[in-house]
Amino acid sequence: MKLRALTLLLAAVVVATSLSAQTAKIIRMTGEQAAQVTKADGTTVPLTLNQELAENDLIEVMAGTRVFMRTFAGTITVIEENSILLIEEVRQVGERERTLLDLKQGNVVANLDPDKRSTNDYGVKTPRGVAAARGTNYTVTVDGMDVLVTVTNGTVELSFPELPTPIMIEPGNVSTGTAAQSLSSAMSDPATAAKAAVAMRAAATAVASLINEPNSGVTSATLNQLITVAATASNETGDNGSLVAGVAAAATAANPSVAEEVVQSAVSAVANSGNASAVATNVVASVTRAATRATPGSSVADTAASLSAAANNASGGTVTVDSDTVTDAVNESVDAPEVPDDDAGSTPTADEGNEGADDGPEIDETEVEIEVPNDNVIVSPST
User: Could you say which residues form the signal peptide (predicted)?
Assistant: First the structure.
């Protein structure tokens, strides 16, 4: 009996160890820094930098604020303004690092280090199901019962019980919990377009903000891929660069040091399109405006000249961006009102999509899983 009791005790210790609850930590707050957390006992306190959070804590991020939260090394969630998020699970399960977040409303950008794919187990619960991944950058948007998952790199595998083979979601595609569609296709629907544009700008801000973050798994390649996705969608929709200009501006506002990089990525992606020069000019004007706003004392003319040259060089001579035209466009827009991310209107133009400064991540191969219990749809990770 004593031996049996000892065995049971040891088994209990092993189970407790393999299911070890952890804490999340707030590693950065930008903008107004207006956010609060409601604890499991019902008390509500302001959210602060370096604060540790536990399972069942409910986070509310107010307008003008962005919150960066780390659950494990290489697992950073960016909670956008006007979002409500419940920390459902943060725990070590054997060798797995499990994070499950319940997004009640708003937007979150998941930034997952691809090098930790073998141990990471990350998911965002929505009213329609769970969007999960092991190594990628993707955005989840919840608006009531509407859900949008936007992936900028890697492959997602959607499995429907009634279909013989899964549906693969390639980079640059989105899903509303059903079959995937291209970002450009989603932009044809005004309601989806507005949400997708916000999601892409949020992802650009997060990626640019995390480039210099230790152990984030984010690199310049992540940002380049994201900009390329936006540029491709702009090219396919014929929006004259509105989407990619807004995304490039958001990245630059978050981290001005990436200005030339995002211009080169965008122009390289559209260099062979019929309206490449118009798109490039739109992008350069938008990035110039964001860069000069984020860097007090900088010269609009000098910045426009530098970025115009970078655009022309990146195109291999197929694009012509006139720096004087860019300078005039930026100067004319100095007194123009800002357009908020959640504005009910269209995708951002060269004068839109600029946000407060932060830092940026890399996008490697994506493995995303979405479970949709209400529709009996399951999305499993690709291999």
Answer: 1-21
Specify the residue for token string 């115009």: 308
C-alpha span between 333 and 133 (Å, rounded):
40
Q: What is the rounded CA–CA span in Å between residue 226 and residue 203? A: 8
CATH architecture of 18-186+367-381: Sandwich (2.60)
pLDDT at residue 177 greater than cutoff 80: no
Give yes or no for a contact between 349 and 282, defined as CB atoms under 8 angstroms apart: yes
> Across all residues in the chain, what is the average pLDDT?
82
Domain extent listing, the chain: 18-186+367-381, 219-332
* 128-173 tens-digit pLDDT: 777 877 778 889 999 998 989 898 876 555 444 444 554 566 779 8
* HEC assignment per residue over the chain: CHHHHHHHHHHHHHHHHHEEECCEEEEEEEECCCEEEECCCCCEEECCCCCEECCCCEEEECCCEEEEEEEECCEEEEECCCEEEEEEEEEEECCEEEEEEEEEEEEEEEEECHHHCCCEEEEEECCCCEEEECCCEEEEEEECCEEEEEECCCEEEEECCCCCCCEEECCCEEECCCCCEEHHHHCCCHHHHHHHHHHHHHHHHHHHHHCCCCCCCCCHHHHHHHHHHHHHHHHHHCCCCHHHHHHHHHHHHHCHHHHHHHHHHHHHHHCCCCCHHHHHHHHHHHHHHHHHHHCCCCCHHHHHHHHHHHHHHHCCCCCCCCHHHHHHHHHHCCCCCCCCCCCCCCCCCCCCCCCCCCCCCCCCCCEEEEEECCCCEEEEECC
C-alpha 71: how far from its chain's center?
Answer: 17
CA dist 160 and 154 (Å) reads: 20
From first CA to last CA, the distance across the chain in angstroms is 48
| pLDDT higher than 90, residue 58 | yes
The pTM score is: 0.82
